[in-house]
């Protein structure tokens, strides 16, 4: 099933909602202006609406949401200024919601800068006010409004960033989680069509991890998992990503490497783990299966090949790196009649 474009895109959702609210708010006024013979005002209303809808459609059809947000903000704020000029104090009522919405549409500093500029233009132009007191009251209320909006936007932003980090990371080890892994592998396979650079993938599985739990307890096992992740993270580049695939199994995505470089990265990780845990009893080691993305891979076949190589590393004695051969697959043992074939896991226990 195709993913909805709004599912993971908060900014796109905000822009779409803004467009919907703009239609609901502006269309009745445009109709009223036409019916009361004020065609110029109706044209202004429809012009503002057309520009906002253009920005919304651009974002919806895959355009850059940051640019779309800026375009929608500039259109609505300019529209608000024109309406204030045409209708005086009554037209100024629109500026409150417009300046508030800007904090949802674009980054805080842009919203703040545009709000200050819009308030300054209205005050300097001055035709909306019958007295200095009115101008002061507008300046004070508008300033308080944008200050609250800025504080609220800042809190919302930091909470959203924390929630996104929580949703993408494994809480025990800090590695990215399986959900993030699937998205990253899908992206790497799709990106192949745009950038023709090689990309490596490795599965890292701790050896005999059950023994650590059995001898030292589950909490000691947890500490080993966290230390393992810290060791791997210290050996990989900024653009590489480590994911917890499940239990004591991890996936490492290494963009921009060929098979030789991938083997060196994996070997470096393997020997670092061996060294760092050499004084433990039992010693902790890792088996690694790695492979380069092939032109006709989907993410599952790519991962499956790395898994087959990791399985071979286990069979060949553990604590080693195996690079998948072309078309390598995890062997299956003959199943009893009537049952689906199962991987030869029994041989590893
Ligand atoms: N402490 C701890 N243990 C975990 C966690 N997740 C999975 N495990 C344990 O990891 C162990 C995995 O055992 P196996 O699948 O038999 O693998 P293994 O002992 O590493 O053996 P090989 O992979 O064949 O080398 C099980 O005992 C799980 O309980 C976790 O989050 N914390």
Automatic annotation (TrEMBL):
- Note the PROSITE patterns from the entry: GGDEF
Q: Which Pfam families match?
A: GGDEF
Instruction: Please list the residue ranges annotated as the GGDEF domain.
Output: 197-326
Keyword Transmembrane found: yes
The catalytic activity of this protein is classed by the Enzyme Commission as 2.7.7.65
Task: Report TM segments.
Answer: 12-32, 39-60, 80-103, 110-129, 135-153
**Enzyme superclass (EC):** transferase
User: Which InterPro entries does the annotation name?
Assistant: Diguanylate_Cyclase, GGDEF_dom, Nucleotide_cyclase, Rev_trsase/Diguanyl_cyclase
State the superkingdom.
Answer: Bacteria
Q: Which UniProt keywords apply?
A: Membrane, Transmembrane, Transmembrane helix
Q: Which reaction does it catalyse?
A: 2 GTP = 3',3'-c-di-GMP + 2 diphosphate
| Alphabetized CDD domains for the sequence | GGDEF
Q: Where are the annotated segments for Disordered?
A: 324-349
Q: What is this protein called?
A: diguanylate cyclase
Q: Which organism does this record belong to? A: Luteimonas vadosa
